[in-house]
Amino acid sequence: MFENKYCYSFPAVRGQQAGRPFYIATCPLRIIPKIFLFDEEEVPAELRAQRTLNRTRLPEMVRYLVDNPKEYVFSSLTASVGTEVRFIPHEGAHDLGVLQVPMDAEILINDGQHRRAAIEEALKEMPELGQDNISVLFFVDEGLKRSQQMFADLNKYAVKPSPSISALYDFRDSSAGVARYLATEIKPFVGFTEMEQSTVSPKSAKLFTLSSIKQASQILLSKNAKSHFEDGDLQIAVSFWQACFGVITEWQQVHNKELSPANFRQEYIHAHGIGLHALGRMGKSLIAQHPRDWQHVLQKLSKIDWRKSNPIWDNRALHHGKLSKASSNIKLTANILRQALDLQLEGNDKKLEEEFSSNHV
Questions:
Q1: Residue 221 CA to chain centroid, in angstroms?
Q2: What is the pTM of this model?
């Protein structure tokens, strides 16, 4: 019966997991939208083998493919074939050969439906991508229950990388490039940046995370994660953070080994991400209001008492005695810095300060 069916033929390698055969095949991108299906969104979750497609994720994935046709990397799709397949081994190579899948077979994606949808959309903009290939891991389907379990197993141990290590390895993100340069070349960050984790452990010899440096510099330069950072932006960031180092005594003490990083984090606000982000927000206002003499005005920052025990940080950097990186807390902390430098509060920052004052008389 199989011999009478028209088939797709894929170069493939055969393997075995848990007593079941699987096949790793190479498929041209142009045929991915035609043969790989995903469950209709209208079908109830209990009758599907995967989550529904989140279309808000697709534009960014499509742009990644289209903008990087010579550099993109897409990991394998995992699919279940709902019928019998045939593997024809090459002579002398038992597990290397050709996988034949009937054209009328239902092939469901267990992992990678967003990659499949992005490929389909990208091909509309750049048809030449269809000549590229992607690897596909095929399993022979044993029914809905087995497919649902496969989905659960495939996603159970998936862990999103920390923002810091993403910034460390992402060379297409220009803001990450700014952060990497600051972390490796500029005080107060050089030698004191946690490059991999998203938090700094209590006993660590580090002070700041790479992701915090990235975010604080984005705030400073009035840019978001998708903005392009020019050389001029890097120069501003370098000048600002070096100037901050020059007027913040505790940062200097840590670098001079007069104050341990652990004690610094325990006692001070500006040893944490909220302090860094607040400095970035203040710096944005400072440079806008004093474009020519901002470094001179910044000298007033040396008068700030950054100790957590200072009541001025209550309900700003501290909430019920604990540091808070909520957006409103960062803004209120930055307002203290602005006021210390006699900077004008404008727009939402002014409104937030008025609300804070009325609630904490």
A1: 20
A2: 0.70
Length of the chain equals 361
3-state helix vs strand vs coil in the chain, percent to 5: 50, 20, 35
DSSP structural state of residue 36: -
DSSP state at residue 314:
B
Rounded Cα gap, residues 104 and 83, in angstroms: 9
CA distance 42 to 308: 53
pLDDT in tens, 156-212: 666 677 888 888 888 888 888 999 999 999 999 999 999 988 888 888 899 999 999
Q: Determine if the peptide bond prior to 188 is cis (ω within 30°).
A: yes
What the block records as the tokens of 327 is 């957006």
The residue whose two tokens read 């810091």 is: 164
pLDDT tens by residue, 248-271: 999 999 999 999 999 999 999 999
Structure letter (DSSP) for residue 52: P
CA angle 233, 235, 236 (to 5 degrees): 65
Question: Looking at the chain, which runs of residues are DSSP E strands?
Answer: 7-17, 20-28, 77-81, 86-90, 93-102, 107-111, 133-140, 193-194, 208-209, 318-319, 322-323
Structure tokens at 148: 């649902």
Q: Residue 325 to residues 277, 302, 317, 330, 333: CA-CA distances in angstroms?
A: 9, 23, 8, 6, 10
What are φ and ψ of residue 15, in 5° steps? -140, -170
Instruction: Output the furthest CA–CA distance in the chain (Å, rounded).
Output: 86
User: CA angle, corner 270, sides to 268 and 271, nearest 5?
Assistant: 70
**Alpha carbons 82 and 144: distance in angstroms, whole number:** 10
Query: Does residue 305 sit in helix, strand or coil?
Result: coil
